[in-house]
Amino acid sequence: MPMLSYKDVFLTYRGTAVSVKALSHFSLDIDPGEPVAIIGPSGCGKSTALLLAAGLLQPTDGEVSIAASKVTKPRFETALILQDFGLLPWKTVYDNAALGLRVRKFKRSEIRQRTEKALQQAELADFARLYPAELSGGMRQRLALARALALDVNLLLMDEPLSALDALLREQLQDLLLQLWRTSAYAQVLVTHSIEEAVFLGRRIIIMSQRPGRVAHIVDNPGMGSTDFRGEAAFYTKCQEVRAVLTAQSLKGAGVAGADVATGANADAGVSRA
Amino acid sequence: MRKLLSYLAAIAVILVVWELAALMVHSPVLPTPLATFPMLVRYAGALAPDFLISLYRVVIAMALGTVLAMPLGLAVGRSPRLDTLLAPLLYILYPIPKIVFLPVLLVLLGLADAPKIVLIAITIFFQVLVTVRDAAKAVPEASVLSVRSLGASRLDVFTNVVVPASLPELFTALRISSGTAVAILFFAEAIAGSTGLGYFIVDAWGAIDYPRMFAGIISMGLLGVALYEVFDLVEHRLTRWRSSVRR
Q1: Domain ranges, residue B13
Q2: Any idea where the domains of chain A sit in the sequence?
Q3: Distances (CA, A) of A133 to B97, B150, B247
Q4: Alpha carbon of A147 to those of A99, A182, A250, B62, B138: distances in Å?
Q5: Tens of pLDDT along B68-112?
Q6: Which of A131, A146, A161, B62 can bridge A122 by disulfide, Cβ–Cβ 3.0-4.6 Å?
Q7: For residue A213, what is the DSSP state?
Q8: Across the interface, do B145 and A86 touch by the CB < 8 Å criterion?
Q9: pLDDT over threshold 90, residue B27
């Protein structure tokens, strides 16, 4: 039984003047404990797919389910990390990390124990009383991670969590994400713009089409799982493979001659006047 | 320490300008600072009850206006439907100077505390309502989403995100409107009743007792400064996360 399952999902954002089709015929199954990376052109609906899984959006058509039950609202065993980390500037590091547990009405003693452990895992134990504004970008990212870790989830959703960080820091945090995933049992969905990041952190790399987004291609990546992978030739080859598929996708979307137009990517650009 | 020094320097500048202005005007209606302070001491006993009455009126009125406006502002700011419903009403009512209703309130509510408190409360109500609504509207959607994704209820989102995010703007509104509140208070007390600093000032004016009048004016000024400073202090207390950045 898949952990997370999208069945022929459609999602249309209805504005007052313009409706935008973000997803159409989006289908994907993710197994328990599986790490998956989603990559695709800007505006292809990657983030929308995550918000659906988090229960923050409802599909226009189709079904999103977790462990065989339909997702209708945020669920306690799922954590979501957003691009700007979603930290609350008015709460200390500790209070930010404890927020999920407090909202879920855990017992006081358990909140303290779990929060302290999560801060330790994220190497933030010494900074518990600071505010997010006093932290570096990498520390803020680790705090967002600590908040998710404290919840002991079985599904971790991340929307370009590292995109604001510089290259070296980014690799360090990728290592941390990989280690944390290996020591826990959660399924992980990472939305990213970076091919290297997708190959480093995704056992399967889901390549999405232009908007309205659907799964255009899936690249299997059994070699991932070790922090040394980044230095191996197989890593480089896999990046090339993903790059080639992505390039073909963007050619299709741009309507370049010779690209496969049978998918209807041109005919249905996704934006229609309501 | 530095803040205290710059504060003292500002007071010194004000006293010097005042002294020069008094010397230039050279009229009993504008006494020098040196002549005024003995007056303040001399009239302290007479001023105290009126000061306390004025303080009571303005504090109650501002509290009343805020308590009513804050939840409504948060709700309107977070609910597009409520906003569409109430926005046109606000656009019309907000710019109306509420003080013109003073005669109406005096006839309806008598000459005592009630009309003064209600008039100031109405003014503060609209200031706070509009400011808090705009602040609640501007809360970053990412903060709301991330808290909701944790399974937070609507109430959790309000207490953890919307309220703290709106606090700085609330206090800005309160600080700015504390001046307006004292001005309205002066006007209302001057026109009706026989208590409060406004009455004290106008009464001394009528008696051509300029030193007494000026002691009243300075007291009313101090009332305004005190309110402003208290709001500033409370804001710092409640929004510590902002001052932490400047360390």
Answers
A1: 1-30
A2: 4-77+153-273, 79-152
A3: 40, 22, 10
A4: 7, 18, 36, 39, 24
A5: 999 999 999 999 999 999 999 998 999 999 999 999 999 999 888
A6: A146
A7: B
A8: yes
A9: no
Conformation bin of residue A35: beta by default, left when phi > 0, alpha when psi is -120 to 50: beta
User: Could you say which of A82, A99, A104 has the minimum Cβ distance to residue B145?
Assistant: A82
pTM (2 d.p.)? 0.80
| Residue bearing the bigger pLDDT, B240 or B166 | B166
pLDDT digit string (tens) for A242-259?
999 988 887 776 654 443
Count of structural domains, chain B? 2
- How many cross-chain Cβ pairs, A to B, lie less than 8 Å apart? 75
Contact A90 B142 (CB under 8 A): no
Do residue B42 and residue B104 come from a single domain? yes
Residue carrying the six token digits 């600071």: A130
Residues contacting residue A204 through CB under 8 Å, at least 6 positions apart: A34, A36, A37, A218, A219, A220, A221
**Percent of chain B residues topping a pLDDT of 90:** 73
Q: What is the CATH number of the domain that holds B115?
A: 1.10.3720.10
E strand or H helix at B168: helix B163-191
| CATH fold for the domain made of A4-77+153-273 | Rossmann fold (3.40.50)
Give the tens place of pLDDT for each residue, A162-207.
Answer: 887 888 888 999 999 999 999 888 999 999 989 999 999 999 999 9
Output the six-digit token pair for A249.
Answer: 């996708």
Please determine, for residue A265, whether its predicted confidence score (pLDDT) is greater than 80. Answer: no
Nearest alpha-carbon partner for A104 in A74, A135, A131, A138? A74
- Are B216 and B100 within one domain? yes
Same domain assignment for residues B59 and B19: no
B210-238 vs B33-42: helix axis angle to the nearest 10? 90
Note whether B77 and B102 are same-domain residues. yes
Are B11 and B107 found together in one domain? no
Q: Do the Cβ atoms of B150 and A79 come within 8 Å? A: yes
Residue type, B182: V
The answer to whether the Cβ–Cβ distance between B142 and A133 falls below 8 Å is no
Domain co-membership, B52 together with B26:
no
Q: Are A238 and A219 in contact (CB under 8 A)?
A: yes
Domain co-membership, B22 together with B120: no
